[in-house]
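Support request from a user on the community tier.

User writes: "When I paste my structure tokens into the form, the page sometimes reloads and wipes my input. The last time it worked, I copied everything first. Here is what I submitted, just in case something in the input itself triggers the reload:"
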């Protein structure tokens, strides 16, 4: 199967920066899209930023101009550079990937969603 391992969360003061990483490993034939989601206490999980393979990134309005999503294809690793952080950015951040697997010697015809375990980001003075 596929494992998504996130890192880079932590405590930062308002106005500060953090860089999240998400490394994908496993029987991966292709990654069709990746994205970062977040969930604050008492709120639903929301899309923060997404990027299709070879496509244009998209961002939630609340993070446009402050966050940048990128993918290092050779390493199957996605990043989220977060600048000018605000207290309302506090949440658990989850990595998501839409993946086609290898099934033996052939690639799967379907795409499955996988999630990381989440990493806590806290913005507070």
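"...and here is what came back when it finally went through:"
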């Amino acid at each position: 199967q596929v494992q998504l391992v996130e890192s880079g969360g932590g405590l930062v003061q308002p106005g500060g920066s953090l860089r999240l990483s998400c490394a994908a490993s496993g029987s991966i034939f292709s990654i069709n899209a990746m994205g970062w989601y977040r969930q604050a206490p008492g709120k639903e999980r929301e899309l923060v930023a997404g990027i299709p393979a070879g496509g244009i990134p998209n961002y939630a309005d609340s993070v446009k101009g402050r966050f940048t999503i990128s993918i290092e294809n050779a390493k199957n690793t996605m990043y989220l550079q977060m600048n000018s952080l605000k207290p309302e950015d506090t949440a658990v951040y989850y990595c998501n990937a839409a993946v086609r697997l290898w099934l033996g010697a052939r690639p799967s015809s379907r795409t499955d969603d996988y999630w990381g375990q989440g990493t806590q980001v806290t913005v507070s003075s």
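Agent notes: The reload is a front-end session timeout and is unrelated to the input. DSSP finds no helices and twelve strands in the chain. The radius of gyration is 15 Å. Escalated to web team.
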